[in-house]
Design a protein that fits this description.
Length: about 350
């Protein structure tokens, strides 16, 4: 109600000045804060509500919590409070809870949600089934993910992409690529998310040639514009295969912003293959993109040290101290010279 036409500040002013605030009014302002990623304010309003919350109230809070790194368990606890009040979770609730379950990798809760959706006839919803495929896949339950997929009468691009990503995530690259072939044969048009799964599968399996082929097919056959994530996957697979200069050439020619993922993939593989020159380029780029990430300094310093360039390694150590950085636990700054 409020947020569709006015700013968050104006909406809050309208809310505060409202003489009578029923549950719809409360839900509107709570949802507005939740959608604005101001979860703390949404929770505070939820806490001070002077009317009885309904399912929509809880759905807004659960969905907001499920999107935060430290809110997964809180989202599940909020759902339990909702049920204690006699309110039944609906499709919106279940979809949000699935995201929370993925966050804590709790396959038992995913099974409970799946069972509840079947008992309450929510299960046929294609969005829920695609969510279940993703959830089971992320927890390593590929058989269950596949079972949900084959039980679907109409498999859209989201369902296919979810299954491809599930196999790719668990290192079953060949199966992921086989599913992609089946998708093409079923005349379902892949999108950018589909190709992210395909490229990640190639990366996990070290299939550099295949990755380049799929990257070209994505643009030439399907007209899907490559995003920063697509380019980062391509850089990653080329770097892992030792094609470091080829990976760097991809970075130089990227028409979109080069992300830390792409530079990080190149830097990590430079350490693996002992490539100092490109490591310096990638490291310096990362210092600009992620100035507060000590891992980049540590990796480049180790590359220097392993190639006998101890002064440069020591220089990076001093730079970290100057910036107030600390190496992550398990990292060592011992520079040994014979």
């Amino acid at each position: 109600m409020y947020g569709k036409c006015v700013s968050l500040v104006s909406a809050r002013q309208l809310f505060d000045e409202s003489p009578e605030r029923n549950v719809v009014v409360w839900n509107s302002i709570i949802s507005l804060y939740a959608h604005s990623n101001d979860v703390d304010s949404a929770l505070e309003l939820f806490r001070v509500m002077d009317v009885v919350p309904n399912s929509s109230t809880f759905n807004a809070i659960i969905a907001a919590l499920a999107e935060t790194e430290d809110g997964f368990s809180k989202a599940i606890l909020c759902n339990r409070k909702m049920e204690r009040m006699g309110l039944r979770p609906n499709l919106i609730t279940v979809l949000a809870l699935l995201r929370a379950c993925i966050g804590i990798a709790d396959v038992n809760l995913i099974k409970q949600i799946h069972g509840y959706s079947i008992r309450n006839d929510i299960d046929p919803d294609p969005q829920l089934r695609s969510g279940l495929i993703e959830a089971y896949g992320r927890c390593g339950c590929l058989d269950k993910a596949h079972h949900v997929f084959v039980s679907m009468r109409n498999r859209d691009v989201v369902a296919w992409s979810s299954l491809i990503s599930a196999y790719a995530l668990q290192g079953q690259a060949r199966t992921a690529l086989e599913v992609f072939k089946e998708m093409e044969m079923a005349n379902v048009r892949p999108d950018g998310i589909t190709f992210l799964g395909v490229l990640k599968a190639c990366s996990h399996a070290g299939l550099a040639d295949e990755a380049q082929m799929y990257f070209a097919r994505m643009r030439d056959r399907y007209g899907v514009e490559a995003s920063s994530d697509h380019y980062a996957c391509l850089v990653d697979v080329l770097s892992r295969a030792g094609r470091l200069h080829q990976a760097y050439d991809v970075i130089r020619r990227m028409p979109v912003k080069v992300t830390a993922k792409a530079w990080g993939a190149l830097l990590a593989s430079c350490r693996t293959y002992g490539e100092v020159e490109l490591a310096e380029i990638a490291g310096r780029a990362l210092f600009e993109v992620e100035p507060d990430n000590p891992a980049n300094f540590v990796i480049l310093a180790r590359i220097y040290a392993s190639n006998g360039r101890f002064e440069e390694a020591e220089g990076l150590r001093r730079e970290m101290i100057k910036r107030g950085m600390k190496a992550a636990p398990g990292s060592s700054w011992v520079v040994h010279q014979d």
